[in-house]
Amino acid sequence: MKDIERYQNPYHDEKVHEACAIFGAMAKSGKTFSAEFAIRAMSNMRERGTGLGAGFAVYGLYPEMKDLYAAHVMYLDKAAIESTEEFLSSRFQLVYKEEMPTRKVKAFREPPTFKRYFLGLRDGQIEDESEEDYIVRQVMTINNELAGSYVFSLGRDMGVFKGLGYPEDIAEFFCLENYRGYIWTAHSRFPTNTPGWWGGAHPFSLLDLSVVHNGELSSYGINRRYLEQSGYNFSLKTDTEVVAYAFDLLVRRHHLPPEVAAMALAPPFWDEIDRREAEERSLLLALRQTYSSLLLNGPFAIIIARHGEMIGLTDRTRLRPLIVGRKGDMVFLSSEESAIRLVEPGLEEVFSPCGGEPVISRLGTREAVGGAINC
Amino acid sequence: MTEFKINASGLGYHSLNNLIKEYSARGPGNIKIENVFGQRYIGAGLESKVRIEISGTPGNDLGAFMSGPDITVYGNAQDGCGNTMDGGRIVIHGSAGDTVALAARGGQLFVRDGVGYRAGIHMKGDTTKSPALVIGGSAQDFLGEYLAGGVIVVLGLSHDGQRRHHGRFIGTGMHGGVIYISGGLEEHQIAGDAVASKAGEADLVTLEPLLTDFAGVFGYDKEELLSNHYLKLLPRYLRPYARLYAPGGHETAPDR
Fold first, then answer.
1. Which residue among A139, A243, A349, A366 is least enclosed by CB atoms within 10 Å?
2. How far is it, in rounded angstroms, from Cα B68 to Cα A355?
3. CATH number of the domain located at residue range(s) A2-62+161-362 in this protein
């Protein structure tokens, strides 16, 4: 689209950017598909971004290495490579490492260095904590203490590719045409309150969880302070980071089902809670009391993915758009309906879920996704 | 009438709108646009009374600021459709996204199916000009938010056979205009800024011409639409936020 605009727009007013764009596609059968859906859909929503950040998360990415943790690490400084690799070797069994395949892209004059590691755990390496907590701790250490190194993702059979550009640039740079996955989520950024930089691009990831977000979280400060008490350290200078850590805390560590986690992040209004049946009312009250500091305030539409699941959620008054499309076992989430229709013309169902109502697609399930247009 | 055809496939929104401007400058015509996938601002600012037929999914701000065209969409419209429209008509054979007809000050907008959040937000009208938004299905939350003028009609026709609406915060901050809704509503769905009553004979002056057009466009029986019961929402106050920052009384809306 970029080149078309260049010669079709004699007024050079193509900077009609206005919002972020988010997109997700999932095959509930688990069958993998190429990057094409995500790249075409994102290109079609070009006006929503600014070239100041874009990225993709892919699941089912490394089937031949799926028992190992795959780490995508960005180095802003080549000097950081040695210390980080030393750290990784001391905390993991470093099975395989390589330079991430990238190609020269005109938009990036001096891109950072990207390396990919496949990591195992040595017997007896972990004491007194879960494997996941151990991994999270190492990620936090690298991001906060090893200058110039940032973990974009460290999970099994998944990975995040992101950077400072338009989605098409990022896709070209990371040679995304060579990868397949059964979930792809994507983002194009219009930075509002925080700088556009390589690490500030979405998706944000922790373990196998990833988040893309359109909007801004005015509750960032209170959310962050609460999460810091649970050991999360913030290093990426962007509000969306809280969503990834909040979901990790609620779902992985506190064992809430995603449906219930959504009720904590975007709870119904008090008068709405008053009208619910007694059992649901007491659940909602308990959630609001327990997790009042995790309530996400401000406009947002987010797509959260993890293995086996893709979740769409908007704020309670839906101040940012989210459209759901479905055909057979394929589910699409998007900021705009046109982007879904472009990649899948034969949709069987299209709707926009109500504010605060999660739309959850699960691997291997046949039932239609939740939500309804007229709620 | 001259007929123009545009294949919008792969065309950026700027080029598409330049073509539309060029064709509409040639006098009365019918512009058919196919393969539309999200191109924005279609028909924006146009004053000529051209007819535009769109197949596909037009992008945000369809018909923004326009005052002349008669636009028909075979498909769904996205967000901001009819943004600040001044005149003309938009007919959607499908649904519309969020903030349809926002700040409209004239013209008509007919949607066959449902609409998203904040439909008709801050529509306005005066004695010379008044916008109308007719929704065949149902509306999500904040219908007619900050409504300042014009008419919104919700028919509830395609809503799961139950004809019960789920939208909340209807008429929040409304201080002008009128909303008619047919189909089940509970009291808590209506904002405190609106006063509900049953529509009567006197309201037919407003409803009949709109429903006649709507029935004609989408093939409904006009009499059937007119025989429905309508709830009528009027603003409780002309200045609902008069006391927000300074003490003093509300200005109560006059009887209508």
1. A366
2. 35
3. 3.60.20.10
pLDDT, one tens digit for every residue, chain A (375 residues) = 444 444 444 454 444 445 799 999 999 999 999 999 999 999 999 999 988 999 999 999 999 999 999 999 999 998 899 999 999 999 999 999 999 999 999 989 899 999 999 999 999 989 899 999 999 999 999 999 999 999 999 999 999 999 999 999 999 999 999 999 999 999 999 887 777 889 889 999 999 999 999 999 999 999 999 999 999 998 888 889 999 999 999 999 999 999 999 999 999 999 999 999 999 999 999 999 999 999 999 999 999 999 999 999 999 999 999 999 999 999 999 999 999 999 999 999 999 999 999 999 999 886 656 544 334
**Is A317 within 8 Å of B141 when comparing Cβ atoms?**
yes
Q: A323: distance to nearest CA of chain B, Å?
A: 9
CB atoms within 10 A of CB A131: 12
Question: Where do the DSSP E strands lie in A189-228?
Answer: 204-206, 209-215
Using the beta-carbon criterion (under 8 Å), do B59 and A374 form an inter-chain contact? Answer: no
Angstrom distance (rounded) from CA A205 to CA A208: 7
A20 catalytic per annotation = yes
Q: What ranges do the domains of chain B cover?
A: 76-235
pTM: 0.93
* Inter-chain CB pairs, A–B, below 8 Å: 91
C-alpha angle A200/A203/A205, rounded to 5°?
100
